[in-house]
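Query form — protein RUFY4 protein

QUESTION: What is the three-dimensional structure of this chain?
INPUT:
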Amino acid sequence: LPQRLATLATAAWEEARQSRQQLQAQRQEMARLQEQLCRARQDGERWASALQRAQREALEREATRGAEQARQQELIRDMKGRLLELLREKDALWQKTEGIDTPMPSPPPRDGGLCARCRKDFRLLSRRYNCRLCQGKVCHACSVDVGKQGRCCLLCYQQRHPQAT
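ANSWER: The structure tokens for RUFY4 protein are given below.
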């Protein structure tokens, strides 16, 4: 019996030692996992902070973009208004000079490289249009867009639409 007790005590002692080693290993594993958890939380906070900063910057960019778009739309509206003013002024000046010129549309020039109205050379940046009424070749400044029908020279347009002047 004493030997059996000694064997049981030794086995219990060995089992206790193994349990202590397992406990120690589990504590080390738990410490390592807690450290990883702490790092993961820190990373999560950094990512959340970065996300908030990115969202804030995106909102600021969107606001800036919206303001810029509004400014550009206002600029376009102003430019369209100025264009209409200039067209009216051009038409008024053209009306003043109409009596000086012949009242009929001038025949197309023999040289296909000149505008029938202002005698401007057609080059890379000055486009040539055929008047749909008199078939004269005119530049962009001396023509009017009449929609799907094409373009016609100012003289023909004003003769057909006297109210437009």
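ADDITIONAL NOTE: The chain has a mean pLDDT of 86.
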